């Protein structure tokens, strides 16, 4: 089950931080949901930035620079074409990790729900360490050794360190990185992994409510979302972050 954390008063700050770190640790669930009743949404995201994990996602609200950006359906209808920003559509966003093209991907992704869709839009979560025991050794070895291009660099999908696995994976970013002559080969190589992700009973699904903040360990946990109705008022604050030393 997805762990929940209640944040009812500002006096709980240290306690909440400790619980989040535990759930997002490499040995933890890889995700948790904070139910915030203590401060405004922007203040909560600033609190995470200052005390938990430093954001490298910034935008402007009026004249202020803030450590998050807005994610909403901007009515894009070109899902699946090169250059599409899937998070700006209302279409399904398959399981992935953020910033897979960086040498050091985001370690934490925070998604704060200001308003969710009326139908659909459920968040999807899968800790890769839960999936590993279902893979045979040959395919596990392939995912650890085979490098895939993401933009101009190449990385394996899985890495093993100290008896746990981390993952960097975005089907969309990988497939955008290949020219037509390599496209079909790479698509076939990823086919089995994509089937595993789409059919795994280990995938957890949750519909975030207003003032819920989903936090994800972006190195151990894949996340995604179901499609939702067009022209929805769905809007989230999103931050991509690196851990602060506690």
- What's the CATH topology label? Double-stranded beta-helix
Q: Note poorly predicted spans.
A: none
Largest sheet report:
7 strands, mixed
- Termini separation (Å)? 26 Å
Look at the structure and name the CATH superfamily.
Clavaminate synthase-like
- Please state the average pLDDT score: 93
Strand percentage lies at 25-35%
Into which percent range does the helicity of residues fall? 25-40%
Given helix and strand content, the structural type is alpha+beta
Computed CA radius of gyration, to the nearest angstrom: 18 Å
Q: CATH top level?
A: Alpha Beta
Helix run count: 6
Write a structural description.
This protein is an alpha+beta fold and 246 residues long. Helices cover 25% and strands 32% of the residues. Strands 1, 2, 3, 6, 8, 15 and 17 form a 7-stranded mixed beta sheet that branches. Strand 1 (4-7), helix 1 (13-24) and strand 2 form a beta-alpha-beta unit.
Summarize this structure briefly:
By secondary structure, this protein is an alpha+beta fold. Strands 1, 2, 3, 6, 8, 15 and 17 form a seven-stranded mixed beta sheet that branches. The protein has a four-stranded antiparallel beta sheet with strand order 7-16-9-14.
């Amino acid at each position: 089950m997805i762990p929940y954390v209640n944040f009812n008063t500002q006096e709980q700050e240290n306690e909440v931080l400790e619980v989040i770190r535990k759930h997002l640790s490499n040995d933890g669930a890889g995700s948790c949901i904070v139910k915030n009743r203590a401060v405004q949404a922007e203040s909560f995201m600033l609190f995470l930035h200052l005390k938990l994990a430093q954001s490298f996602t910034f935008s402007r609200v009026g004249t202020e620079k803030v450590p998050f950006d807005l994610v909403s359906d901007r009515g894009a209808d070109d899902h699946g074409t090169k250059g599409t920003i899937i998070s700006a559509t209302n279409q399904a966003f398959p399981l992935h990790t953020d910033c897979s093209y960086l040498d050091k991907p985001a370690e934490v992704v925070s998604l704060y729900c200001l308003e969710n869709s009326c139908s659909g839009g459920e968040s999807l979560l899968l800790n890769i360490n839960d999936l590993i025991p279902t893979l045979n050794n040959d395919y596990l070895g392939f995912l650890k050794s085979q490098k895939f291009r993401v933009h101009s660099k190449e990385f394996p999908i899985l890495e093993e360190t100290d008896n746990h696995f981390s993952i960097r994976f975005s089907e969309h970013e990988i497939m955008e990185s290949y020219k037509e002559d390599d496209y079909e080969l790479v698509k076939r190589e990823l086919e089995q992994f994509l089937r595993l992700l789409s059919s795994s009973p280990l995938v957890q699904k949750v519909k975030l409510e207003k003032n819920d903040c989903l936090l994800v360990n972006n190195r151990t946990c894949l996340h995604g979302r179901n499609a939702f109705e067009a022209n929805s008022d769905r809007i989230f604050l999103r931050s991509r972050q690196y851990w602060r030393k506690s």
